[in-house]
Design a protein that fits this description.
The protein is of the alpha+beta class and about 325 residues long. It has a single domain (about 40-310), classed as Oxidoreductase, molybdopterin-binding domain (Sulfite Oxidase, Chain A, domain 2). The chain is built from eleven helices and twelve strands. It is globular and about 45 Å long. The model is unreliable at about 1-10 and about 25-55 (pLDDT under 50). It binds ligand MTE.
Length: about 325
């Protein structure tokens, strides 16, 4: 077993978090001491997270297991992957699980919009009757250099694309996630460009790996992990995997994501995993596994090159990895 060590590039968690970008740009963060001077907003962050793991009644969600994507590493213990989250709508700490229990997940519907045969809203329960649920284990690699390995239950994104019937002009999918001021305290941080937006090309969305998850560890997906339905794109940095999606728009314009709006030079559109391309503020060569804290080498495309590398042939002039 590898021993956890802090490599030379390692930086405090708070500095690695994308929110440090915003604060740095606004002159609010000049080091740990400066956080105290950031005023009421800084104080609020501490209030958002819940210390105790949430008590949730997560219903079982059985589905056939698909072992085509064997992860080659141990599953992350459920308690670790469900208590160390990025969900900025509920706060910018990792301990948002408690606050996220306020998320109202029923009823839930998704708007299919833009360049589709019939723009419409579809209730989640109706959508789930028209797709094939399965369980897959995927590796997840956050841009902050931590990683987890999770059994997701969901369905291929290609099935949603088929149901939506995009027109021949559609080139991209633009995901919009829930923005509910009543339940999401993070939305009071008005310098963030809410709502959380993400996007992929149609070719990426119809790649066999692209997945929409409604379950995790054999149960419905917990609120803090993006209930009731989230995007899962295992070859890309985790910020591409938008949580709690309410709208999928088909468009011929490349979507500008939430993090791109904040700092395009650090969080680009493609954001494919590559250990050779460092983030401007830290190395991407290694990753820390949630749970064991082992440091392991990061693989290009997060190890999924056989499935996805060909998607990017002919795109060599694009900034594919940052
Ligand atoms: N989706 C929304 N709506 N809001 C977020 O803040 N954070 C992203 C992504 N999806 C985020 C989001 C980031 S940075 C990561 S790494 C993953 O969710 C984290 O997923 P997890 O908390 O289930 O591990």
């Amino acid at each position: 077993m590898l021993i956890h060590r802090r490599p030379g590039w390692s930086i405090p968690e708070r500095e690695a978090t994308p929110e440090a970008v915003v604060l740095a740009r606004r002159g609010l963060l000049g080091g740990v001491g400066a956080i105290a001077m950031a005023g009421p907003a800084a104080a609020q962050w501490r209030l958002f997270g819940g210390d105790a793991p949430p008590q949730q009644d997560l219903k079982p969600l059985p589905a056939p297991h698909n072992d085509r994507y064997a992860p080659g590493r141990e599953l992350t213990p459920e308690k670790d992957s469900t208590t160390y989250n990025n969900f900025y709508e509920f706060g910018s700490e990792k301990s948002v699980a408690g606050a996220a229990q306020a998320l109202v997940v029923d009823p839930w519907s998704i708007e299919l919009a833009g360049m589709v045969a019939k723009p419409r809203s579809i209730a989640l329960e109706d959508l789930l009757k028209q797709v094939h649920l399965e369980e897959r284990v995927y590796r997840h690699r956050c841009v902050e250099a931590w990683a987890m390995t999770v059994p997701w239950t969901g369905f291929p994104m290609a099935e949603l694309v088929k149901l939506a019937e995009p027109t021949s002009s559609a080139k991209y999918l633009r995901f919009t996630t829930l923005m509910d001021r009543k339940t999401m305290p993070g939305l009071t941080q008005s310098w963030y460009p809410w709502p959380y937006i993400e996007g992929v090309t149609l070719a990426e969305a119809t790649n066999e790996l692209a997945f929409l998850s409604v379950g995790m560890y054999g149960k419905i997906v917990p609120r803090q992990d993006g209930a009731p339905i989230r995007v899962t794109l295992p070859w890309k940095y985790g910020f591409k995997s938008a949580k709690s999606i309410v709208k999928v728009e088909f468009t011929d314009q490349r979507p500008v994501s939430y993090w791109q709006q904040l700092q395009d030079s650090e969080y680009g559109f493609w954001a494919n995993v590559n250990p050779e391309v460092p983030h401007p503020r830290w190395s991407q060569a290694e990753e820390r596994l949630l749970g064991s804290n082992e440091m392991v080498k990061t693989k290009i495309w997060n190890g999924y090159g056989d499935y996805v590398a060909a998607l990017y042939d002919g795109l060599k002039n694009e900034r594919l990895f940052a």
